Amino acid sequence: MAKKRPQTKGKPHVTAGARAGGADGNFPVVGAREPCPCGSGRRYKACHGRAAAHAVTELVQRPFEGLPGEGDWVALRELVPAATAELTLKDGLPEGVPSVTLATVLPMAWPALRRDDGSVLLGLQNDTPSGDISRDLADTLLRALAAEPGNPVQTRRAPADGPRLQDVLAPEGTFEPVVHTGFEFWVPDSENASGEVAASLERANAAAIPTVKLSGVDSAYWCETPEKNHLRWVMPHAEEKLLDALARLHAAGTSSLGEGTRLVGSFRAHGLTVPVWDLPSSMQAEDIEKPAAEFAERLAAALATDAPLTPDERRARGGLTNRQVTLS
Known about the structure:
The chain is an alpha+beta fold and about 325 residues long. Helices cover about 30% and strands about 15% of the residues.
């Protein structure tokens, strides 16, 4: 959970929007190695399947851009083991669907689940068939809304021209993640779970890294590991501008969050940068709230500076860049 997942680029299996052969240029779905329906004599993947394959595998760098809480979407996708967030649909809830909830992961790694009461759970940390996570999630969500209660929804490749989350979710809606200590949200009555269900919950809970969302700044998450704690903070600023600002603070000795803390590098995830600090194992989430708020003020001032970097700041920037890891 909350680990790097490679983007899957499977064989194309979509309807080609071709312009040759047929009255409207639309061909039936065929396998990649089958003859192209246009009559060229070539395999589909070497003919009209090329454009279709490109359409569904092209990587969207910022799949959550434009959604409320983009930084938290990234955090729940890559960093947070157990969390949920209520989703607001643009057209309102369909009849018989009392709620739609995003979850980091679901049992059996299901992409989505329509519960017995009609509510929908949408899983976020699953592998997606194309390079556009937003389109894949929207397709899964729409199929879950139409599924029979009590059934999971399986993975499939979303249509290349299908809607994205930005088309399905209300743009004015809020996105307020609730971080959980375990996965009891999987079942309505977890306290009375028994047998295989209880065993599954126990295994999942044992693997979850304790995580807390800070309340004073946006999209910052404290987590506890055996040797030291960390703060991982998803930031919305343009990457180059943010790295310059972090370098200014680092060179000035003001990039830490207090005694015993250290800015150690950053992740790059879904188009956003995620600076990471090492924290002493004694420093809990509530201890980092005030230092994080003070750092946010220093960062805002550094972001507003347009002066060229000094030699010390350039060296600091090089060190930060060398320690940057791309998650997606």
